[in-house]
Write a structure and sequence with these properties.
Helix content is 47%, strand content 0%. The protein has 125 residues and is an all-alpha fold. Helix 2 crosses helix 5 and helix 4 crosses helix 5. The longest helix is centred in the last third of the chain and has 18 residues.
C-alpha cells in the first residue's frame, strides 16, 4: 500500500465516533439484563432511559463516569450514601433506598456495558 493511501485511511478511520471503550470489559449478559430493569426503575428518571441525562441528573455516558475517573466503587457509594454535588449543577444526589449492593452491581454492569458499546461524551457537554 502506498503511503498517501495509508495516511488517508488512518485519517478517515480516526474521524468516526468511538463505538466501544476497550478499557471496559464486556459485561455478563445476565447481570446486564437484570441491571437494565433495575436502572429503569431506580435511575432513569434522573439519568435518562438512554443514560444521556435529564434536567434532574447528568449523563452516565459522560467521560466523567469512565472507570478511570469514577470506578465501580464510586457508583456503589453514590447509590448507597448519596453524593455531594461536584461535577454538575444538579444538586446533591440522594441515596437510593431499597437497593442491595448486589443489585447496584447489576446496575453498574448495565451502565458499563452501555458505556462500552456507546463510548463516552466529552466533559463538559
Amino acid at each position: 500500500m502506498k503511503r498517501p493511501l495509508l495516511a488517508a485511511l488512518l485519517i478517515l478511520s480516526a474521524c468516526g465516533p468511538a463505538v466501544t471503550d476497550p478499557q471496559i470489559e464486556p459485561q455478563d449478559p445476565a447481570l446486564v439484563a437484570v441491571g437494565a430493569a433495575l436502572y429503569e426503575t431506580n435511575c432513569a428518571q434522573c439519568h435518562g432511559s438512554d443514560l444521556r441525562g435529564t434536567d434532574q441528573g447528568p449523563s452516565q455516558l459522560s467521560s466523567v463516569y469512565a472507570p478511570s475517573h469514577h470506578g465501580d466503587g464510586a457508583f456503589l457509594l453514590a447509590v448507597m450514601n448519596g453524593s455531594a454535588q461536584h461535577h454538575w449543577d444538579f444538586g446533591p444526589m440522594p441515596p437510593i433506598e431499597g437497593l442491595s449492593p448486589s443489585q447496584v452491581d447489576e446496575i453498574i454492569a448495565f451502565v458499563r456495558e452501555q458505556q462500552r458499546l456507546n463510548g463516552f461524551e466529552s466533559y463538559p457537554p
